[in-house]
């Protein structure tokens, strides 16, 4: 069964996604970051502008098929079209379809945006109602 974790109180969801991608890549695991298309454009730009020592090898899901399969981090508007990866980071407002084929699903929740927090609560209820055990990580507590 997919392991589900909610990372709450992210001051900047996209900056956190970049740090998370770096951490997953360094662990040797493969990651899919699923988000709306306009968010992926911004995230792609952010990943390319990280410091050289923080570089995260990645590509978009519309890249050449060989590159998509070789990339440790894949940016995808729809995670269902992604080749099998171990970790899915969801930046969509809704439950990602096909999340059950990933070993781990991570939901990133804003510290400030009440709409994002409300949608995260709905996703939490969805997973809990289907029997998934959910791990909660409060990013404010980790920083302090």
Q: What does this 3D model show about the protein?
A:
The protein is of the alpha/beta class. It has a single domain (7-143), classed as DNA polymerase III subunit chi (Rossmann fold, 3-Layer(aba) Sandwich), CATH 3.40.50.10110. The chain has 5 helices and 7 strands; from the N terminus they run E-H-E-H-E-H-E-E-E-H-E-H. It has helices spanning 13-27, 37-48, 65-70, 114-129, 139-143, and strands spanning 3-10, 31-34, 58-60, 73-76, 87-90, 104-110, 134-138. The protein has a 7-stranded parallel sheet with strand order 3-4-2-5-6-1-7, with helices on both faces. Helix 1 crosses helix 2. The longest helix has 16 residues, at 114-129. The radius of gyration is 14 Å and the shape is globular. The mean pLDDT is 94.
């Amino acid at each position: 069964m997919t392991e589900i974790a909610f990372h709450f109180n992210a001051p900047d969801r996209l900056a956190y996604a970049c740090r998370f991608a770096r951490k997953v890549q360094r662990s040797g695991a493969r990651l899919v970051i699923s988000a709306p298309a306009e968010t992926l454009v911004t995230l792609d730009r952010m990943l390319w502008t990280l410091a050289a020592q923080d570089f995260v090898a990645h590509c978009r899901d519309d890249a050449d098929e060989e590159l998509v399969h070789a990339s440790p981090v894949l940016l995808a508007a729809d995670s269902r079209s992604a080749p099998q990866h171990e970790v899915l980071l969801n930046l969509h407002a809704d439950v990602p379809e096909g999340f059950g084929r990933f070993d781990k699903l991570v939901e990133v929740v804003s510290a400030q945006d009440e709409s994002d927090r409300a949608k995260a609560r709905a996703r939490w209820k969805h997973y809990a109602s289907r029997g998934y055990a959910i791990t909660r990580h409060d990013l404010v507590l980790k920083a302090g």
